[in-house]
Specification:
Elements lengths: L1 E6 L5 H4 L6 E4 L2 E8 L4 E3 L2 H7 L1 H12 L4 E6 L5 E6 L12 H9 L8 E4 L5 E6 L5 H18 L1 H9 L4
Antiparallel strand pairs: 1-3, 2-3, 3-4, 5-6, 6-8, 7-8
Length: 167
């Protein structure tokens, strides 16, 4: 069981009513529950959730997100610090839902009171910058550049561009 970050248009209109428990976490983003199977991911609908209990499933989904992903820290040309979380799991980007826990686990420090900026260009990446010091403007530009580059480098996007004759 995992929490999963999905766009709010992830469900066809006819299926959206089956995910009434989904929680809006930011403009355009929902938190849903997903069952991680060996070869696929199955999003849970209202019936599934009702049988097991929403809060119990959310707690399990939250706990399962904080794992040991690949982790690196870089200082960009702007001077901003970027924390790069990546991995083969389809739930790396969803770790943004538990960013406080992830940051504490990976860095050994709490996020500052002002929080963090982050980007999730694909399900396999989460990059964040704690909001401390004077590098926020540089961090915004750096995160945007990383997010756009990683999104463009995503194998699925490459296939779609080729199918559309764009390279």
């Amino acid at each position: 069981m995992y929490l999963r970050l999905v766009p709010d248009d992830a469900f066809p209109a006819e299926a959206a009513s089956s995910f009434g428990y989904a929680r809006h976490v930011a403009t355009g983003l929902l938190e849903v529950l997903a069952l991680g199977l060996p070869d696929s991911v199955r999003l849970l609908g209202d019936r599934d959730v009702a049988g097991a209990g929403l809060e119990e499933l959310r707690a399990a989904g939250r706990a399962n997100l904080v794992d040991e992903p690949d982790y690196d820290v870089t200082r960009t040309d702007s001077g901003a610090i970027q924390h790069l979380v990546s991995g083969g799991s389809m739930f790396v980007a969803s770790e943004a839902l538990v960013l406080d826990d992830v940051a504490r686990s990976l860095t050994g420090r709490e996020l500052p009171d002002d929080g963090a900026l982050f980007t999730v260009p694909s399900r396999h990446f989460l990059v964040f910058h704690p909001l401390e010091g004077a590098n926020a403007v540089g961090a915004i530009n750096d995160l945007a550049a990383f997010g756009l580059g990683a999104h463009r480098d995503n194998p699925l996007m490459t296939i779609l561009r080729r199918l559309n004759g764009a390279g």
